[in-house]
């Protein structure tokens, strides 16, 4: 099942996507919902960010090749994480499928994409073992963890490198039935494949992260966990269009523009 | 004016605190409000976390003595921040005035308090100069940035060191009129003063942080910014009661307990 959040006729809410038609609901996938009987055409609505998270978690370094390639670019020894220490991103930076990523005037050329699987939490959860960890998951969507690498290296935190407004495209919708082992992440730059990897070839998988996290913290409905990326990105330029596809979910597409151009 | 969020007769909402009486409102300080005409006694309600933030910002290292003392404890050279790089904390960890901080079973003895000024954002804001930066502030409350120092040093991120459930007491209310230059932060451990410092003796003040942050990101109503702490804390033990007072706001009091004791 696919949950989509959208705006039609001035109202924002949730619906269930079937092919290119949306069955409108009252309520949401977290607190409960009922069909209104109304239907919208997908191409007649504005797609919104699928959920504004209560807490925005991010796995950071979670694929071996990405860690090695990023270290190589900096001339450093790769520092492969030995346990699942979760990190954070910020809600201000979220934009929807189809919206523009706006690169600030003073950013360097080192602006990169990171195509990521996003876990959407559906139920409050604490102290979940790995075997039951996925029971709190509502479904999966797609994120692009846009990064300004010069700020990432020079600042004390990742605040503007990762969380500048528009740097976190997410969507287009939430897929509740995904075969993680069969999924592939494919990133296209201006229509040509530039990065691809098996989505589930993570250092620490979704269940491992959720189990480790919920030993100390409570996950809440609407929390999101971005699972990290593999490979590297070329430097992105004004006008570039980046598509992150995860097979079985869909494709998140956003154009990159330089502020003031 | 003091905004308090509380539960009375099974309902949670906002009121205006005058002495020890609460004037109940419909709505909230962010979207608008009107008096209901009902009044509650302060000691008859349960005080709640004053706001569940959209994004939970934290200045981290923002007082010179704290940076120096923390570095000295680790036998390192202090690394004084040279610019206001904001960090993040997580909403799961928030608890209200009067609730217990629960130290996990496997935490070391190195559990510390950090008494902090908390800025509550009242209006959406971007690109604010320093002179106008405080115009987006609704008011101020108090935070205790509880930290497990062994995890803080050993983990790749601050997730459990800073964001374990109950590690972020905040409250008791929001004061809208505070003379920052006159305010003093006083931390008491079991009734005896253990740390005190002028609240506004920060490396980077509230207006400087807001101006720097809003160059890249949009602040939203209900966002909070924890401004960092000065001095150091002794190791906290089962049963310890920590009070963080900021003169002109009030006192945030929480007991620390070890899980399973």
UniProtKB/TrEMBL annotation, chains A, B:
GO terms for molecular function: catalytic activity; metal ion binding. The keyword Metal-binding applies. Gene3D superfamilies: FAH, Fumarylacetoacetase-like, C-terminal domain. This is 2-keto-4-pentenoate hydratase. Coiled coil: none annotated. One of its GO terms (biological process) is small molecule metabolic process. Signal peptide: none annotated. Residues 56-256 form the Fumarylacetoacetase-like C-terminal domain. Belongs to the FAH family. It comes from Caldovatus sediminis. Keywords: Metal-binding.
């Amino acid at each position: 099942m696919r949950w989509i959040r959208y705006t039609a006729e001035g109202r924002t809410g949730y619906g269930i996507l079937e092919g290119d038609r949306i069955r409108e609901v009252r309520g949401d996938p977290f607190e409960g919902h009922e069909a209104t009987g109304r239907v919208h055409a997908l191409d007649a609505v504005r797609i919104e960010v699928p959920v504004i998270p209560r807490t925005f978690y991010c796995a950071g370094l979670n694929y071996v090749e990405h860690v090695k390639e990023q270290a190589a670019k900096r001339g450093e020894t790769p520092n492969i994480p030995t346990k699942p220490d979760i990190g954070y991103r910020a809600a201000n930076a979220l934009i929807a499928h189809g919206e523009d990523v706006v690169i600030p005037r003073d950013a360097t050329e080192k602006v990169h994409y990171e195509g990521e699987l996003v876990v959407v939490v559906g139920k409050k959860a604490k102290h979940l073992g790995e075997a039951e960890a996925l029971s709190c998951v509502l479904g999966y969507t797609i994120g692009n963890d846009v990064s300004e690498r010069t700020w990432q290296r020079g600042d004390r935190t990742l605040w503007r490198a990762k969380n500048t407004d528009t740097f976190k495209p997410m969507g287009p919708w939430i897929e509740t039935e995904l075969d993680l082992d069969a999924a592939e992440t494919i990133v296209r730059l201006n229509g040509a494949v530039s990065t691809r990897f098996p989505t589930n070839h993570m250092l620490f998988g979704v269940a491992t992260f959720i189990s480790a996290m919920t030993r100390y913290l409570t996950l809440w409905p609407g929390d999101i966990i971005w699972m990290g990326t593999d490979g590297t990105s070329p430097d992105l330029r004004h006008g570039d269009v980046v598509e992150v596809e995860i097979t079985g979910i869909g494709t998140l597409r956003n154009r990159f523009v330089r502020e003031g151009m």
